[in-house]
Amino acid sequence: MTEKKHGLVLEGGAMRGLYTVGVIDVLMKYGITFPAAVGVSAGVAFGCNYKSLQPGRALRYNLRYGANPHFKGWRSWLKTGDLYGADFCYKQIPEVYDPFDTAAFARNPMDFWCVATDVETAQPVYHKLKDGKRLDARWIRASSSIPVFARPVQIGSHRYWDGGVSDSIPFRFMERIGYRQNVVILTQPRGYHKEPSRVQPVVDRLLKQYPAVVDRLHRRSFEYNEALAQIAAEEARGEAFVFRPSQDISVSALEHDRETLLGVYQVGVKDAEARIADLKDFLKK
């Protein structure tokens, strides 16, 4: 592949992902496209609407169904093992309540990859989505399934969990496949530093049958902070263009207050609108 092609990298972050939605909705407004993108967890669950050219959709269904116990909540977790209801999120919403445009997704020539973590090896698996239909939805669900708060997702002979366990910000993956100057949408503000989880001893006990995943979770804060440092260095050299929340968007993964969720989205819109001219200049390189 030729070098210096532009790719798009979408971090996860549960409901902080509505910041990403705000940014990509602005990208669609200005007709900004990429030959390839990669998303993790909420980054792919919400970001897939960028490939299907459906601005507003991710915000709409989160506002409409955010308080629905079938969508997310402890009741869903206790009943099914999934904090985010698998059937409601990955079947009922995209097929019935707020249809996902699989035809537009398939027509769009942009390659869109998602990242999941193999349960047995704790290694990242990068899967290129194809048509936005049920198998793709299963990969998106796998990428978004947080250990302890979701069941592993079986695809073929393997089981998968959240891609954030093994590659929270997969910008190096984009470089490996030939995209040397990338736009990265983060969901934490500048200066953020991930600390080791205070509940890790509890997680260790709950996941003792998955030793590779436990080991990876112990390393996650270090790997995440290392990725942030590498991205900042590339940004300083002009090799990356990075969107970060310009103000606090702390929000619970189970947040259902419409105004709070809308506020996260609006920060993304504001940040993208403020920097759209700079982004266009970057993409000319």
TrEMBL record:
<dbReference type="InterPro" id="IPR050301">
    <property type="entry name" value="NTE"/>
</dbReference>
<feature type="domain" description="PNPLA">
    <location>
        <begin position="8"/>
        <end position="175"/>
    </location>
</feature>
<dbReference type="InterPro" id="IPR016035">
    <property type="entry name" value="Acyl_Trfase/lysoPLipase"/>
</dbReference>
<keyword id="KW-0378">Hydrolase</keyword>
<dbReference type="GO" id="GO:0016042">
    <property type="term" value="P:lipid catabolic process"/>
</dbReference>
<keyword id="KW-0443">Lipid metabolism</keyword>
<protein>
    <submittedName>
        <fullName>Patatin family protein</fullName>
    </submittedName>
</protein>
<dbReference type="InterPro" id="IPR045943">
    <property type="entry name" value="DUF6363"/>
</dbReference>
<dbReference type="Pfam" id="PF19890">
    <property type="entry name" value="DUF6363"/>
</dbReference>
<feature type="active site" description="Proton acceptor">
    <location>
        <position position="162"/>
    </location>
</feature>
<dbReference type="Pfam" id="PF01734">
    <property type="entry name" value="Patatin"/>
</dbReference>
<keyword id="KW-0442">Lipid degradation</keyword>
<dbReference type="InterPro" id="IPR037483">
    <property type="entry name" value="YjjU-like"/>
</dbReference>
<dbReference type="GO" id="GO:0016787">
    <property type="term" value="F:hydrolase activity"/>
</dbReference>
<feature type="active site" description="Nucleophile">
    <location>
        <position position="41"/>
    </location>
</feature>
<feature type="short sequence motif" description="DGA/G">
    <location>
        <begin position="162"/>
        <end position="164"/>
    </location>
</feature>
<dbReference type="InterPro" id="IPR002641">
    <property type="entry name" value="PNPLA_dom"/>
</dbReference>
<feature type="short sequence motif" description="GXSXG">
    <location>
        <begin position="39"/>
        <end position="43"/>
    </location>
</feature>
